[in-house]
Amino acid sequence: RVLVGTKVDETHANWVTAYNMLTGIRVSVSRTNAKLDRDVTLADFDVKQKSTFDIAGNELVPSAKYDFKFKDYAPWVFRNLRGLFRLDPADYLMSLTGKYILSELGSPGKSGSFFYFSRDYKYIIKTIHHAEHKFLRKILKDYYNHVKANPNTLLSQFYGLHRVKMPYGKKIHFVVMNNLFPPHRDIHQTFDLKGSTTGRDYKEDDLEKNPRATLKDLNWLRRKRKLELGLQKKQMFLEQLQKDVKLLQRLGIMDYSLLIGIHDLRRGNEENLRDKTLRVFNPGGDIPEESEPNSFLMRTPSKLENQRKARELRQMLQAERPVPMGQTSNRMPDELEEGHSRPDALFNQDDGGFQATHEDNTPADEIYYLGVIDCLTHYGIIKKLENFWKGLSGDRTQISALPPQEYGDRFLNFISGITMSQEEAVREAQERDAA
Ligand code: ATP
Ligand code: CA
Ligand code: CA
To answer: 214: Cβ below 6 Å to ligand 1?
Structure first.
């Protein structure tokens, strides 16, 4: 669980993987974007679009540096999902593939997944296990319908599901999703909440050397923290959360959490942090103080290479997009405005997040950046076993591997219990004291 960045250059295996991921996305997504719009059909959910890349290239795929195979799953569905999430097609490609720069966090979670940020920190690429990949394909229709019916869903926003395979290498599945945290705001504290207390504690002693670690349920409770929302916002938030959790329960999903990033307006953006990655993304928290920033830049292509790539990409976008190009087409990502990609969405309405409010709906001093993450774990046989063994020793409602129905109920219970305005919290404390 140690997050040490290793420099990746052209000789490093991760460079090739990342290069291939981005090349595959660039070619496959622009091909899909080029098509004339039409409705999603049932058949679209089962589509696998395969491309084979090599140095030579052919009329279908441009030449690439390395040999690899790329699969784009349900590309038409994801194109529509990106539309529902209001991403600009050209911006999306530019952020991810305008320059071949990603920062990598080695495997931060227990799961062994790798996380990469797009260079503007808007997007996260997460490698996922085969089982998660299969499961996402299975539930894609339900997910798509849910997003359509719930434009303000708090669930992870999936923008693409892909696979790369290098010669003699194993298959690597990955999703592209939203980074919940904004690139332009300091996140002063991060919590990953499941509504469970077992093992849900970040060692407070370690906070000193790693003040921006992701804290957990017990740390939250110890601080007597609240998600400070007045009546109106509280209702909006809990109503959406209930709908989202209901879907997860129906699909047999568990182990997800509510990720909350807190920007404290009193502290503002003053603390010029050494490393952006540290402030926006610090999951495991075990970052050695003296090490280099825990992210690293993948090798930056030479200027010439960049110019060539930018030209190529522009040409591709211009040639393949049926609609007239918006003003974004000729801008490089450097010039893209900072901020959240969905300012119009309910929970991103205040500077990309959801500002705390008092009981009477007047604004309070924090902005929350929040969403439900890690929602591809199906309550399968492994979890059942885990439940069995843990169940032998301890309170069954306090262990994390609960069946989906109970998991969701406990999750909702916990989150609604901590969502209240300052005024409500004070009243609650007084009532407790009086009793
Ligand atoms: P595990 O299964 O052990 O929990 P995982 O590899 O599935 O790990 P996640 O739970 O998805 O990983 O994420 C781990 C951490 O990464 C989160 O606690 C959070 O700090 C960060 N993270 C994950 N997804 C996002 C996101 N969309 N935006 C911002 N941060 C994220
Ligand atoms: Ca998790
Ligand atoms: Ca996981």
So the answer is: yes
Please state the separation of Cα 322 from the chain's center in Å.
Answer: 30
Structure-token pair, residue 258: 């509510």
CATH fold, domain 1-180+281-339, is Phosphatidylinositol Phosphate Kinase II Beta (3.30.800)
- Test site for ligand 1: of 263, 281, 348, 377, most ligand atoms within 8 A of the Cβ: 281
Q: Is the ipTM of this complex over 0.90?
A: yes
Query: What CATH number has the domain spanning 182-274+343-435?
Result: 3.30.810.10
Q: Which residues pair with 172 in a beta bridge?
A: 164
| Beta strand 158-165 pairing with 189-193 | unpaired
Q: Is the CB of 81 under 6 A from ligand 1?
A: no
Q: Is 334 helix (H, G, I), strand (E, B) or coil?
A: helix
Mean of the per-residue pLDDT values for the chain? 82
Express each pLDDT in 287-333 by its tens digit. Answer: 322 222 223 333 333 455 545 545 554 554 444 333 333 333 333 33
CA–CA gap between residue 208 and residue 112 (Å, rounded)? 26
Place of tokens 């529509």: 80
> Is 356 touching ligand 1 by the criterion CB < 6 Å?
no
pLDDT digit string, tens, across residues 48-86? 999 999 999 988 899 998 999 999 999 999 999 999 999
Which atom of ligand 1 sits closest to the CA of residue 112? 6
